[in-house]
Amino acid sequence: MLPLQDTVASRFPPFVVWCLIGACVLGFLHQTSLPPRELEAFLYRHALVPARFSGALPAASPGGWSAFLTNMFLHGGWLHLILNMWTLWIFGPAVEDRLGAVRFLAFYLVCGIAAGLAHVLANPASTVPALGASGAIAGVIGCYARLFPAARLVMVVPILFIPFFFEVRAIGFALIWFLMQIVPGLLTLGQEGDSGGTAWWAHIGGFLAGWLLAPFVRRARRVYRPYYRDEGMYGFLPDGRRSGGGGPWG
């Protein structure tokens, strides 16, 4: 289930979203330029290794607290990078528009750090480097769903190589997405040994951070001109709702 388009109008260009996507692409290109041994050492130093912070690894092991930030700009492969950047491209501009550039950047990094902390707490003995922007992007999804619950998302699901398109409200998408993270996340709790693959608890932690922070980080309406009804798109109000409903928007 992949989102293709949203209906929330944005007034300002998403410069921070563009910069984050560029930084992630450059980080991944740097990874691909390294020979295997150097890449392994690079990831062990700059990706997030939970055991380093739980005491399971020696204090002298390479890497430090900066990994909570640097791991957000590294990815495990082209598909990992493309899916994350596409999701950020869909949900990021509307959130950046309502928060402002500087506040959005701080919000994004805080959600990424919260995602990293959740991953470490859920997998304290793991020595597998965790990397990727998905935890921070999960925070963006949580914030988007909190700010624009009735916005519509155009989704695509491939069925036997045939794309099936449908429309879903943002809150519905967020709930389905969150359940798809928390069910496998709960199943991984208590498992012994290193576990690779998806960092479910990073997604959960990032999403919850974004959802909880949303009402506090949005710019005050007095410093942000309200949208007018004709500034929506494709028959939708600026907050993504279908036109015809009453109440404030923006």
From TrEMBL:
Transmembrane segments: 12-30, 72-92, 104-122, 128-147, 159-180, 200-217
Pfam families (UniProt xref): Rhomboid (PF01694)
Any single GO CC term annotated in Swiss-Prot or TrEMBL for this entry: membrane
Keyword Transferase (UniProt): no
Main location: membrane
Cell location: Membrane
Keyword entries, A-Z: Hydrolase, Membrane, Protease, Transmembrane, Transmembrane helix
UniProt-recorded Gene Ontology molecular function terms: serine-type endopeptidase activity
UniProt family annotation: Belongs to the peptidase S54 family.
Protein name (record): Rhomboid family intramembrane serine protease
Species name: Roseicella frigidaeris
